[in-house]
Amino acid sequence: MEILSIDPSKRFVKLMPETKLDLLNLYRIISVGDIVYSDTTREVKKQRADGKVDSERVKVTIGIELERKSLDPLMKRVRLLGRIAYVNAELDLIGKHHSLNVDVGSKLGIEAKGDFSRLKGFAEHYRKMGGSKKLLCILLDDEQFTISSISDSGIEVVHKGRMVSQSKERPEVHVKGIERVYAEIIETVERKLELDNPELVVLGNEIALDNFLKFLKRERKDVFNRVKKVAHVSDGSMAGMQEALRNRILESVGENVKPVKDAELVESFIETMSKNSMNVAIGFEEVCKAAELNAIKEVIVLEDFIWANMDDERFQRIMDLVDKRCLNMHIVLTNTEAGDKIASLGKIVGILRYPMKLTH
């Protein structure tokens, strides 16, 4: 979430969601009665002296007093409905119903009419975190390479390919072929460094790492100096990435990047569960039961589960406990190994305050 401004005197925050997860957090923080401001376009008709009518679309800023909010799980966006309370143009719109569809990249202003401290704390938390950080990971082994981008939106494969097969008869041809692959990797990395300014990480087996880093230092010293982390993994595919996340190799450079945090959180939960299954709640029914008994202190939930169940009354009661700070909630990204593990456990799990048996 990019926080564009905070104005306590006007009880106002301007922000822009950067990920789908930001949209979920935004949905939670906006309250009925708040004034939500957004730029939109309206068709304006003007009559000429000869009686003909011209129309044009003009950009206006509209503020709606929020009456209802909902999530669109299919489009992954937030829908806000209310009556127009403000418009920065001479248009007959005040008091009319209007809806806002909020997507990633939408800029909004929120004027809190209720508890501004909650909105302010939300904004200051994101501002303290700074901008959305990214990692760019090069994974190598003897047969393949993968370049992956890790951000708060998830893990994306940027580029991948095969290494050149070794030839005993003509080793010099093999070396030149490998160096062409290295040059291809570096070209992709340079573009991403210029575009996103990520932290650069190189992972792989010992021989592949040594050979690549020697070439990088010799041929692209500026890129070599951007490398923040070098570590060993056994595979140059996405399996090597998951190995790095499971073994917490990336924490020192990506502790605030969502997939890295998710992996640490889920591995810790599994460790807790393996020690004593009565320390945890597995699945929605057990989590709801533990919440009713005030026996749960932390909930870990898959992002897709929230999109599908935000309006469920039982889930709303859990969210009320989160809002009252009676328990902590951690949302895990879908389409990651950590997300897959939570999905296999019913998409929502909890850590209990004390051991108890939740199933008969």
Question: How would you characterize the overall build of this protein?
Answer:
The protein is an alpha+beta fold. The protein has three domains: 2-129, Pelota, domain A (SH3 type barrels); 135-255, eRF1 domain 2 (Nucleotidyltransferase, domain 5, 2-Layer Sandwich), CATH 3.30.420.60; 260-352, 60s Ribosomal Protein L30, Chain: A (2-Layer Sandwich), CATH 3.30.1330.30. Helix content is 38%, strand content 33%. It has twelve helices and 16 strands. It has helices spanning 20-29, 116-129, 171-196, 206-219, 221-224, 238-246, 251-254, 258-275, 283-292, 303-309, 313-323, 337-344, and strands at 2-7, 12-16, 35-47, 53-72, 77-87, 97-102, 108-111, 135-140, 144-151, 154-162, 199-204, 227-232, 280-282, 296-302, 328-332, 348-352. The protein has a seven-stranded antiparallel beta sheet with strand order 1-2-7-3-4-5-6, sandwiched between helices. The chain has a five-stranded mixed beta sheet with strand order 10-9-8-11-12, sandwiched between helices. Helix 8 packs parallel to helix 12. The longest helix is centred in the middle third of the chain and has 26 residues, at 171-196. It is flat. 31% of the residues are buried. The model has no long low-confidence stretch (mean pLDDT 88).
